[in-house]
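User: Fold this; tokens only.

Assistant: Input:
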Amino acid sequence: MKRNLDELQAGPHDLLIVGGGIYGAALAREAASRGLKTALVEQADFCSGSSANSLKIIHGGLRYLQQADLPRVFESIGERSTVLRTAPHLVAPAPCLMPTRGILMKSRWVMACGLGVNDILSCRRNRHLDPTRRIPNGRTLSRRDCLEILPMLRTTGTTGAAQWYDGLAHDTERLAIGMLKAATRAGATAANYVKVRRLLLEGDRVTGAAVEDRLGGGTFDIRAGLVINAAGPWIEQVLAGIGRPVANTAPHLALGMNLVIQNWPVTTHGLGLQSTRSSRLYFFMPWRGAVLAGTYYREHQGPPEALRVTDRDIDSYLDAINSCLPGTAITRNDILAIQAGIVPSLKPARPDREPVLLRHYRLVDHARRDGIEGLLSICGIKYTTARGVAEQVIEVAAAKLGRLIAPSTTRRDPLPGGEIPDWASFRRDMAAAHADVPAEELERLLVLYGTEAKDILASAATLTGADACMRAEVLFTLDEEMPQTLADLVFRRTGLASAGRPSSAVLRVCAETMGTALGWTNGRLQDEIAAVENAPTLWQAGCALAPDGTRA
């Protein structure tokens, strides 16, 4: 995956996709694999905006069963199975618990009925899955069994718990990177740090975009038969470049925040817990030796880049977290990382209320809505369903282009690194072949890179020193995955910083390896390290560069 701006300019392309989050990446993979000449541009780094904020849960749609939304239940079940099958290194089943109480909707009996119905509806969920990636049936636990896991609920009215399994992603950013790599291997051209300045309009038809190279400076045009605006919270800014009023898929925005915390009392199960301060349900997912707590929402006003997590946000969320389990006292000192992003909402929030979030993806055909041909806008909301939504959108795009395209294969084709029919055997064979690599380090490489870890380990064997594996990993990502900054590398490629700040020694090794390969000055190297150490949230983790490539 190379950043080739000449190829972007060499069009015309069938499709130009604006936005390199999970939906843009899924669209590019779907389009390129079906024979469409595809280009994708992202104004910052891939997966550095809203897609960087996730609870890492690949949902099976159990929550939609409560709403009797069966189409979404079936969609989520199918797409969860697809992710477990095509990215078995990145996603695995994880047990989740929700305490039961009373005799009504949250009772153990009602929950048992719901889990039973869900198991019936998802009876085909484990077809063609590796045994280690199969989703077990749900069940209810007795009060005694529940209290063995959650003894702090002993003095409450807890009657037991509902237990189910969902997919848990070790790294959602690498899901997007994997889709982009698959797209470029199928012929797509992708580039990060390329910003759309305006859409090209000829009469009533969009014919491409004028873009700016935010690393090298300069502007150029990209021509395409159809532009798909998948810019997330920046959708409206892209549409503003037309110079005419058009329909927006998400006119209202909200801040969403997840915290990576330590010292949470339960690390064996994901927990769905209700705050005693409100009826609000929060989820706590064990992840990389810590716990992800989410999600806090409030209305956001102003442009997306103005997002900031305030002290009030943090204090309010800590109060809510601590009200979920008696005796819990999580403080600011327990926060390892703050994930924040902008998500679409349906309407402005009422005073002292959370915003009402968009529940379904939205696709706008601007020919129908605004009389402007050659432009689609897509607003997605869930990691789990990104691939399936992309399949539907590309069908619409092909029809608008008047093109016959190949059948979709993304439901079955593994992502790069995911060609692993038997995970247990793969881990066992890799451990035997690399007995000299510390077990923890080897496991980290396997769950991030899958079969591509073989290339990293082969490269490490040619290097010397205790940090050979890490330097080989950095060189691999530089060659294969287009990081431009140290933040790109440690937050969105290697995951070294996404669960908390890495040690200064680790940052130094990564920065020096990257800097040597890219010809950084010592000043640039120090700036890159400082930018990672001072990033207040993943949203602000080194995404903005000045035109000369220095940090803005």
